[in-house]
Design brief:
By secondary structure, this protein is mainly α. It has one domain. Helix content is about 65%, strand content about 0%. Bound molecules: heme C (HEC). Heme C (HEC) binds next to helix 4.
Length: about 120
């Protein structure tokens, strides 16, 4: 039984690293907000900082925090309102969070990418 569990864990580990190897982008750490980032995407730095704060504070209580770059912008737009209800965010907080997620995604992939 213990042996089976170990094999399972190794299997999952390999599958996960395979995912990361398959992509040249790095998904390490949740991107910090910089003034450069705010300027590049034309979003207030304070808005992005609040968005990141919300993401750090409210979005990993039920499940692991997903790196913003790991999910397509379209999916973020769809899932964020749904999760905002779960996390009891205000409409403004939801907006700030979505700004941050979009910009953080673009930081990793570039604006035109849907990956
Ligand atoms: C009260 C618990 C709870 C909170 C708080 C919560 N989530 Fe979720 N989340 C879930 C559950 C349950 C699912 C599974 C799918 C569903 O219910 O839609 C999920 C699924 C997701 C998914 C889809 C994952 C995938 O790989 O398909 C994303 C992305 C996500 N949550 C992001 C967030 C964000 C962003 C926040 C913060 C605003 C958040 N979650 C807060 C419970 C929560």
């Amino acid at each position: 039984m213990i042996r089976v569990k170990k094999i399972l864990v190794i299997g999952i580990g390999l599958a996960a690293s395979g995912l990361f190897l398959g992509c040249a982008k790095s998904f390490k750490g949740i991107p910090e907000v910089t003034s450069q980032m705010a300027m590049n995407y034309g979003v207030e730095e304070a808005t992005l900082a609040r968005g990141r704060g919300i993401y750090m504070a409210h979005c990993a209580t039920c499940h692991e925090r997903v790196h913003p770059g790991e999910i397509d912008p379209e999916f973020w737009r769809g899932v964020t309102p749904h999760m905002a209800v779960k996390a009891k965010l205000t409409a403004e907080e939801q907006q700030q969070l979505l700004h941050y997620l979009m910009v953080a995604h673009a930081e990793v992939h570039g604006l035109d990418s849907e990956h």
